[in-house]
DNA sequence: CAAAATCCATTGGTATACATACAAGTTTGT
DNA sequence: ACAAACTTGTATGTATACCAATGGATTTTG
């Protein structure tokens, strides 16, 4: 057997490694399933685009980078997302008179309408994603997820 | 207040929508943190590349698509991953004599060596990712994650 | 007040990730 | 045996996602 002094030799660690039970792998698969659920319920927007639009509707008017921070996307990522939302005329941008560095973003009327019309589906997505768990498990899962953030 | 007969009108659903407590958003953030932990402990490989290499070391010799299924990646994705692992000389491919469509993949000696040398770090990554939870919570979290798959 | 440190948006590069389409090879149903 | 259905690897296109670098604007500091 293995020596008791060292934690685990490389080859022992390799022998004991099982991808299918690792957090990272399980989280990736759980997320894959969630994305599939999302796509089935909301086809107009990707999950990321919906997150950006929802947060923008919640905040009203913010700069691009600020919206990125609020939605956990870096500057490069949020730019692409906003570009696509602008192409769809769901978001409008204007220079911030108080700070010439900033692009002030606001949802358009169409953006608001779309958000309101798909919000029920968004609730359903959360419900469907968590459907394999009973109610107590759902609560615990969300609690633990938040702790991991 | 709201009518009791309909579940939730669009605008009510929109008003009650909070991105920060949605499963999808929380999973994305938890995953972001995991990826950061991973990158800090293993810089030679991306999480996806490591998953493919680890699974290939476990299975010995499989076709590209079969490895994709075993690691939950579609054909297009696993191709790119294997291409990059081949560029690094960690994986070798040869035609399958039994099925001319298949590329038979095998880890190279360098691939085995790298896998064994980073396997301890992989265990550490799982540990660090779950560090915000106590032991009981970690067990529950992994259990619930598996149920969601 | 001027220099340093920050912040902002943008760009370029790399790496997933999935959908779709395709050609070549294999298996099935009849 | 042979056409239909399926599988495999590949290619293309779109959408995240992050890092690093850049240039312009603002704030902090010395």
Compact summary:
Chain A has helices at 10-15, 23-41, 47-59, 64-70, 75-87, 109-129, 135-147, and strands at 62-63, 91-95, 103-107.
Question: What this model shows, in words?
Answer:
2 copies of one chain form a homodimer. Chain A has 149 residues and is mainly alpha-helical. Chain A has a domain at 46-147: Winged helix-like DNA-binding domain superfamily/Winged helix DNA-binding domain (Arc Repressor Mutant, subunit A, Orthogonal Bundle). Chain A contains 7 helices and 3 strands. Chain A has helices at 10-15, 23-41, 47-59, 64-70, 75-87, 109-129, 135-147; strands spanning 62-63, 91-95, 103-107. In chain A, a hairpin with a 7-residue loop joins strand 2 (91-95) and strand 3 (103-107). The model of chain A is unreliable at 1-6 (pLDDT under 50). At the A-B interface, helix 1, helix 2, helix 3, helix 6 and helix 7 of A face helix 1, helix 2, helix 3, helix 6 and helix 7 of B. Chain A binds a DNA duplex (30 and 30 nucleotides) through residues 32, 35, 39, 46-49, 63-65, 73-77, 79-81, 84, 99-103.
């Amino acid at each position: 057997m293995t020596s008791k002094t060292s934690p685990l030799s490389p080859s022992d660690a390799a022998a004991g490694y099982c991808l299918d039970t690792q957090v990272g792998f399980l989280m990736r698969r759980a997320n894959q399933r969630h994305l599939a659920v999302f796509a089935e319920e909301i086809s107009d927007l990707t999950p990321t685009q919906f997150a950006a639009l929802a947060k923008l509707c919640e905040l009203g008017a913010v700069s691009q980078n600020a919206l990125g921070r609020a939605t956990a996307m870096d500057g490069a990522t949020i730019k692409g997302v906003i570009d696509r939302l602008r192409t769809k005329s769901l978001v409008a941008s204007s220079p911030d008179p108080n700070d010439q560095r900033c692009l002030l973003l606001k949802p358009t009327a169409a953006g608001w309408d779309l958000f309101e019309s798909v919000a029920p589906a968004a609730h359903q997505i959360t419900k469907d994603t968590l459907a394999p768990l009973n109610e107590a498990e759902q609560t615990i899962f969300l609690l633990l997820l938040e702790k991991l953030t």
